[in-house]
Amino acid sequence: MRIRLTAGLVAMMLIGACGNETGSGGALDDQEAAALVQALTTAGIPVGGSAFVLSPVFGEAEIGTIGDYDGIGTQVELTTVDETGTHTVSWIGVVGWTGFDAGARTVEEAIGAMFLDVTGAFPATFAGYVADGDVITFAYDAATSSNYYPGDAGTFSMTGASFGSASDCPTVPPLGGGISITECEVRTGTMQGSVGFTAGLTTGTGDPTFTLAETAYDLPAVRVSMTVDYTGALAARGAGSE
């Protein structure tokens, strides 16, 4: 039962780390974070199906800005243990949004970028490109209807990052079914860099293209390292088949 890292899973972790009606300088509570994830899901942003990965981030997230958007930076190391061994995937991302209404569970706009080509330790800097396949970008604009734009060209770079010492995640949800989170650490810090991309409309009736001009960011960020053990679920499944 090996986890496969998809754009949806990455985006869910990234998006779940941010959102607040009060704008930059604020912080999330669990209800606001859940409302933002639902808002972005409804908007068509690919938030995947692994909500348990989000909880450790909620209590630590603070909000900065990317241009005209509220925003957050995220670095994630996810290790899974299953019948084939131990597997680790990592990614780095930023996301921005405007017009988040927690009560209505809606956003007016959202943008984001994820760097997937992380091997070994998190890099001190990087420059990634959509065309090379190591960066995913996306945008959403609710001006006319639910309009989703996956990026088709652009860049995402990180020129620096700094994180404090690790502490236990403030929230570690029980998963059940023999699946357990055996380790979860979180660090808070900052990320700096730039992002810019173009994208074409895939759903909705809005403008056929979206462009984010190259925009510098200096964001609050959260780094999470989590280990999820699936061997208990595998053992229970084997026992049930006897």
Topology (elements, then pairings):
Layout: H1 7-16, H2 30-43, H3 55-58, E1 64-66, E2 69-82, E3 85-98, E4 109-115, E5 126-129, E6 135-141, E7 147-163, E8 167-168, E9 180-200, E10 209-229, H4 231-240
Parallel strand pairs: 2-10
Antiparallel strand pairs: 1-2, 2-3, 3-4, 4-6, 5-7, 6-7, 7-9, 8-9, 9-10
Explain what you see.
The protein is an alpha+beta fold and 242 residues long. The protein has helices spanning 7-16, 30-43, 55-58, 231-240; strands at residues 64-66, 69-82, 85-98, 109-115, 126-129, 135-141, 147-163, 167-168, 180-200, 209-229. The protein contains four helices and ten strands; from the N terminus they run αααββββββββββα. A seven-stranded mixed beta barrel has the order 2-3-4-6-7-9-10.
How would you name the oligomeric state of the polypeptide chains in this document? single chain
Largest beta-sheet details: 7 strands, mixed, barrel
Unreliable parts: 1-23, 46-51
Element-level helix/strand string: HHHEEEEEEEEEEH
Give me the secondary-structure category. alpha+beta
Q: What overall geometry do the principal axes of the alpha carbons give?
A: globular
Strand order of the largest sheet: 2-3-4-6-7-9-10
What's the helical proportion of residues?
10-25%
How many DSSP helices?
4
β-strand percent reads over 45%
Summarize model confidence as the mean pLDDT.
77
Gap between N and C termini:
19 Å
How many individual β-strands? 10
Radius of gyration: 18 Å
Question: Could you give a short description of this structure?
Answer:
The chain is α+β, with helices and mostly antiparallel strands.
